[in-house]
Each structure stands twice: as C-alpha cells, then as structure tokens.
Design a protein that fits this description.
This protein has 354 residues and is an alpha/beta fold. 35% of the residues lie in helices and 17% in strands. The two termini are 29 Å apart. The structure holds 4'-deoxy-4'-aminopyridoxal-5'-phosphate (PMP). Homodimer.
Length: 354
C-alpha cells in the first residue's frame, strides 16, 4: 500500500504517471529504446517537448494569446535571477511574503533598484500584506502566489499597469486564476508537475527586448523561445513526466476540476485544525494556503506520541520546514482526499486518547 505522501516537494505524483514514466525508462514509444538514451532532437522527444509546452498553455487558457511556454533548468531559483536579468532596467517592485520571495529579492538586487512594496517578514510571514502601492514607473512587479514554507497564499492579485511576474512554484495548475493578468509565470516542476530538474516558464513575449545589458545565452528568455526550448539539452525525463502529469490533469477535467478537489481537501484539514483543541493553525485564516497547511500542537509534550501515530498510519512528510518547525501538510494535486482523511483520523485519535 502506497504511503499518504504529504511531502512539500519533491512530492506526490499521480500513480499512473509514475507507471507510464517507468515504462518509458525501459521502452519508450515502442522503439525498444529508453527515453533517456535517445537524442533530445529525435522526433519522438521533440514531440514530447512540444506537447508539454502546448498542454501548459492550454491548461492555463493562454493558447494563442502571445505567450510562450519554456521548460528550463536551474530550478525556480534560477528564475529569481533570469527575471531580473531579462526585465530589470532601473527599478522593480517586489512583494515579500516568504522565504522564496525574500530570495528572489536578494538575487534581483544586483540589477537595479528594488522597491519592497510590503513585507510580512516581521510577523514570520504569517499573513499576506494587502495594502500597498506599486510605483507606476517600475519595470515589473514580482510576487509569490503560494508561500510553501509559511503556508500562505495570495487570493487576490493587485491591479497594476506594470508587467506582473509571479512565482507559482507551489500552486500552479491547482486553482483557476485570470492567468492573462500575468506577463511571466514560473514554477519549478517538482510540486504539481513532475520530478525536480525542469522549470516551467510562461512568458508574454512582448515584455522582452527592453533591457540594454548583454544577457548570457543560457539566461536569455528570447534565445530559449527562438530555439523552441531546445537551446541546449533539456531535462528529458523531467519534461516527459511533466507532460504526462499535464495530460493526466487535462483528462481529469483541467484546473477547474482539480480546484474543487483541492478545496475539499483543504476544508477537511483546516476544519479539523480549528475544531480539535490539540491543534492550531499558525497563519491568518483568510490567507491560508490550499496547498501547504501549517499547524502546531497546542501541547508540545504530545509531539512524540503524535509523530509515532501518523508514521504508523502510513503518513509521510508531515514535518514543518526546518526554519519554522511544527507540521506542514502539503496537499498537491495528486494527493487523494482519502489521504487527508487518514491524517484527520489520526488527529481525532490523538484527541480521543488524551
Ligand atoms: N519558489 C517557491 C515558491 C518554492 O516553493 C521553491 C522550492 N520549494 C522555490 C521557489 C525554489 O525552487 P527550486 O528549488 O526549484 O530552485
């Protein structure tokens, strides 16, 4: 029996995707060759890359609207740098809502003036700041839609005339948004898409070409666009698994279908956190993430007992991020509702026994 996998990333992927991916490692496309021993320029792999790129745009509703999808390397962390390299001329505005926003700010600082429009750092990133203004002469505004470590999520994005850039690493494809509002979206694959090793970047092409500096080829979005995301050897396996996961999501009914399931999972767990006197949430209720639920025990002396109970129930990956402690239940797209129920059952059993 597979474990209930609440890991924050890399994390659970659909079982049928893992099955197909493992078959492709041995015999891809019935060609008696492995996916990872053929040329990335071979017809079957070029078809995989093209399918992955078009599925990403299709699921987000961005096909034919001036956007390009790329599968790059270097993780979402590389995008902290690439965004600034490609788009920051003089001044950019950033919203600081968590560890990852903070790192994005740090990387971009080398390229121009950074305006931190608001920050929740002083309160341990336990809420999303809502009142701030974005200078109209900013080259862009950058935010993080879901804060994987603290467990908060932006529910409403600001109206702004400047290009809107968003790190959606931990909630892309999990909820319906007006994606056309965004000019650049990036996300490491290892949450809702696939294994670590590739990063999806969605760019509205018209925002490029406005900086003077020389951009090294590997960091240049335009070069990757011109080469159809094949400027150099892509992470073939990670792109293939991402393609399978995106196809899985499409077959299920797309983002609007999975959003309903995700809302049910989040409601089930947060209701228990709020109802059960042995637990409490640690972030503002209105900003709670549907992907990463963070919580603590109200009585620390129960830690050993609780940890033993959830591990015995076949639950994996519930420890909070090392910088925060407590617990974090990550409920990405592939996590079934019954896994959340299994966790809730353990929380109720702990209450009964104490
Ligand atoms: N942004 C967010 C929101 C993340 O959750 C993560 C990774 N957990 C990153 C960026 C960094 O991603 P990577 O490790 O792929 O560089």
């Amino acid at each position: 029996m597979k474990k209930h996998n609440f890991s924050a990333g890399p994390c659970i992927l659909p079982q049928e995707v893992l099955q197909k991916a493992s078959e492709a490692i041995i015999n891809f496309n019935n060609d008696d060759l492995s996916l990872i021993e053929i040329s990335h320029r071979s017809k079957p792999f070029v078809a995989v890359m093209e399918k992955a790129r078009s599925l990403a745009l299709e699921l987000l509703g961005l096909e034919g609207k001036g956007y390009k999808a790329l599968f790059l390397q270097g993780g979402a962390s590389m995008e902290f740098l690439m965004v600034a390299y490609n788009l920051l001329n003089k001044k950019a505005a950033y919203l600081n809502t968590g560890t990852w926003s903070d790192k994005a700010i740090k990387e971009a600082k080398a390229f121009g003036k950074l305006i931190e429009v608001a920050s929740s750092k002083d309160k341990g990133y336990s809420y999303i700041p809502k009142v701030y203004s974005i200078p109209e002469d900013s080259d862009y505004f950058h935010c993080t839609s879901n804060n994987t470590v603290a467990g908060t999520q932006i529910k409403e994005f600001p109206e702004t005339n400047v290009p809107l850039i968003c790190d959606m690493s931990s909630d892309i494809f999990s909820r319906q948004l007006d994606f056309e509002k965004f000019d650049l979206i990036y996300a490491g694959a290892q949450k809702n898409m696939g294994p670590a090793g590739t990063t999806l970047v969605i760019i509205k092409e018209e925002i490029l070409g406005k900086v003077e500096r020389h951009i090294p080829s590997m960091l240049n979005y335009q070069i990757h666009i011109d080469k159809d995301s094949m400027f150099n050897t892509p992470s073939v396996f990670a792109v293939y698994v991402s393609m399978l996961t995106l196809q899985w999501l499409k077959d299920l009914g797309g983002i609007s279908f999975i959003e309903e399931v995700n809302n049910k999972k989040a409601a089930l767990l947060y209701n228990e956190i709020d109802r059960n006197p042995l637990f409490k949430g640690i972030v503002a209720k209105e900003d709670r993430s549907t992907m990463n639920a963070t919580f603590v025990l109200t009585d620390d002396s129960l830690k050993e007992k609780f940890d033993k109970m959830w591990q015995e129930a076949g639950i994996n990956g519930l420890n909070g991020h090392r910088s925060v402690g407590g617990y974090r239940a990550s409920m990405y797209n592939a996590l079934p509702l019954y896994s959340v129920q299994a966790l809730v059952d353990v929380m109720q059993e702990l209450e009964r026994k104490n």
